[in-house]
């Protein structure tokens, strides 16, 4: 069990104890259970995709297009893939983990995660609908440089440590 899991379990138990004394433990557990059941299908799909990527995509392909030797091309591919990935962290992080374990460079994986967080093309319609097209365009253009830049920084500075 890793440290993050231990922290989450301790936090959940502490909140359960507090809720118990406020007579809301059962309601909280019901809400948590409902959230779990609603999230379970996407989690299963995300982990299946992550596993299938590792099993189906040849290591040579990853090395050529996403590995250290891919350079800026790989970083741009990682950024594009991140920007096109739908869903939340339950989808993007298993995919990031999968390409990392398959041999993608640190720069590619950083660009992927940064682009998913900043660009997320599948979320643009929501942003346009809720905040407006002008804001969305300004926000998108303002962040356009960051995923490739983050990938280049990670590759240039941290690749020798991983």
Overview of this structure, please?
The protein is mainly alpha-helical and 162 residues long. The protein folds into 2 domains: 1-40, no CATH class; 57-161, no CATH class. The protein has 9 helices and no strands.
Helix proportion range: over 70%
- Largest beta-sheet details: none
End-to-end C-alpha gap: 22 Å
Query: Beta-strand level of the residues, as a percent range?
Result: under 5%
Q: Report the uncertain regions.
A: none
- Helix-strand makeup class: mainly alpha
Taken in chain order, the helices and strands follow as HHHHHHHHH
Radius of gyration: 19 Å
Task: Quickly count the helices.
Answer: 9
Shape call:
globular
Strand tally: 0
Tally of separate domains: 2
What's the average pLDDT? 92
List the helices and strands and how they pair.
Blueprint: H1 3-21, H2 25-56, H3 59-66, H4 71-84, H5 89-101, H6 106-118, H7 124-131, H8 133-143, H9 146-158
Helix pairs in contact: 1-2, 2-5, 4-6, 4-9, 5-6, 6-9, 7-8
């Amino acid at each position: 069990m890793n440290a993050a899991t231990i922290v989450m379990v301790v936090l959940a138990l502490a909140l359960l104890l507090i809720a118990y004394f406020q007579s809301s433990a059962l309601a909280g557990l019901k809400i948590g259970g409902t959230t779990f059941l609603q999230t379970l299908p996407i989690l299963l799909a995300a982990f299946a995709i992550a596993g299938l990527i590792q099993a189906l995509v040849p290591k040579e392909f990853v090395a050529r297009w996403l590995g250290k030797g891919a350079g800026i091309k790989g970083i741009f591919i990682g950024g594009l893939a991140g920007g096109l990935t739908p869903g939340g962290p339950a989808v993007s992080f298993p995919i990031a983990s999968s390409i990392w374990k398959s041999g993608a460079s640190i720069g590619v994986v950083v660009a992927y995660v940064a682009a998913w967080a900043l660009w997320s093309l599948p979320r643009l319609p929501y942003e346009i609908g809720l905040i407006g097209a002008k804001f969305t365009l300004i926000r998108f253009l303002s962040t356009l440089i960051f995923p490739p830049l983050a990938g280049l920084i990670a590759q240039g500075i941290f690749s020798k440590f991983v």
